[in-house]
């Protein structure tokens, strides 16, 4: 090797493009719009996913299928707030939902 020359390797990451019928926009500081809401004197914890565009029912079904596969109750943990176009999950699933969204490419 000559003096001053560098051996560079370009490792290109594998990028897979998948189209979903929904899209989640990131916030202005490039984070995922997943929030925790505390209600009833901090006894009721809700995880809220905001900034959804597209088919929100398909997003809800994917969340139920991937995160709660054994939940067959009548009152589901995952609901849709049609007024604000949000997905609401009962419980603290903030980090689980963020990891799931990042794994899906959002």
Automatic annotation (TrEMBL):
Gene3D superfamilies: SUI1-like domain (3.30.780.10)
Major localization listed first in the record, in broad terms: mitochondrion
Subcellular location: Mitochondrion
One Pfam family it belongs to: Img2
Keywords: Mitochondrion, Ribonucleoprotein, Ribosomal protein
Family statement drawn from the similarity comment of this UniProt entry: Belongs to the mitochondrion-specific ribosomal protein mL49 family.
Protein name stated in the entry: Large ribosomal subunit protein mL49
């Amino acid at each position: 090797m000559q003096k001053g020359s560098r051996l560079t390797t370009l490792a290109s990451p594998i990028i897979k493009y998948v189209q979903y019928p929904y899209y989640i926009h990131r916030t202005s500081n490039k984070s995922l719009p997943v929030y925790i809401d505390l209600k009833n004197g901090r006894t009721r914890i809700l995880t809220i996913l905001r900034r959804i565009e597209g088919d929100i029912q398909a997003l809800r079904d994917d969340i139920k299928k991937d995160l709660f596969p054994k939940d067959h109750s009548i009152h589901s943990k995952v609901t849709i707030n049609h007024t604000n176009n949000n997905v609401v999950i009962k419980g603290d699933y903030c980090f689980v939902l963020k990891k799931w969204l990042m794994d899906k490419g959002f």
